[in-house]
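Researcher: I need the complex structure. Ligand is FE2/S2 (inorganic) cluster. Inputs:
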Amino acid sequence: MYKILKKEKLNEAVELMVVHAPFVARSCQPGQFIILRADEKGERIPLTIADYDREKETVTIIYQIVGYSTQLLSSKQEGDTIPDFVGPLGKPSDLKKHKRVLGIGGGVGAAPLYPQIRKLHEMGVAVDVILGGRSKEFIILDKEFEAICDKVYYATDDGTKGKKGFVTDVLNELLNEGKEYDEIIAIGPLVMMKAVVGITKPKNIKTAVSLNPIMIDGTGMCGGCRVTVGGETKFACVDGPDFDGLLVDFDECMRRQGMYKEEEHSCRIGLGG
Ligand code: FES
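Model: Output:
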C-alpha cells in the first residue's frame, strides 16, 4: 500500500499528490512513468512522474480529472492509500548537454516536462520554457519553472496570462526573432505536439515529444500503447514514452486515443458524472 502524504488542487481539474513509494523514488529518472490503480478492481492509470525525492522516498504525480478512474483517485485524501503504484516504467529521457533547450508544456503536460527541465538545468544547459493553457488558472508549476529557467513565456486562449493565443504562436515569434535552440521538448495534448512539430520539422529542429496513449500492462505485452514512429511500430510503455517528434505519426495516435471514448462515457454515466 502506498500512502498519500500530500494532496493539492492545482486548478478545477488538476490535482497533485505526493505518494510514499520508496522503490520508485529510489530509481526513477525524468521521463519515466508509473501505473497506478485507485482500488483493487480499478483501471490502470499511467502517469508520468512529475517529481521525486530520493531521501523522503516520495514520488509526485499530477493528474487531470477526466473520467471515472481519475475521479476515483481524486476521491482519496491525505493519509489514504493507493493499492497499486508500479514503476518506474519506460525509458528515461535522453537529455543531452546542449547549449540551449526550449521546453513547451501544454496544460497538464507541464508536469512531465518539469523533471526534464530541472535535470537539464542541473546539467548546466540554458533553458527557456513556454507554458500554455486555456486561461491563467490552467497554467501549472509556473513558479517552479521560473526558478530554474532563463525565461518563461506564457500563452493562454483568453489572454489572462501572457500572449493571447497558443504556445505555437510564441514558438513562431521566438524563432522569427532568431532564437536558436539545439532541441525542443514539447509535452501536452497530441494536437499541440503535432502543431509544434508542424513548425520545427520544416526547420529541422530536433524535437522530443512524450506520448501518453492508452496503456494496459505497461510491459510491452498487450499492444495497447502501439504508436508508429518513423514507419516502425513502437510501444510507448517500453520504447518511450519519449520519441523523436519529427517521426511520430500523430494522426494515428489521435485515432487510437479516441477508441475508448464511449466506454469512458458509460463509466461516467454509471458514476452520475
Ligand atoms: Fe501494453 Fe504498452 S501498455 S504494450
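Model: Summary of the prediction. The domain at 93-210 is CATH 3.40.50.80 (Rossmann fold).
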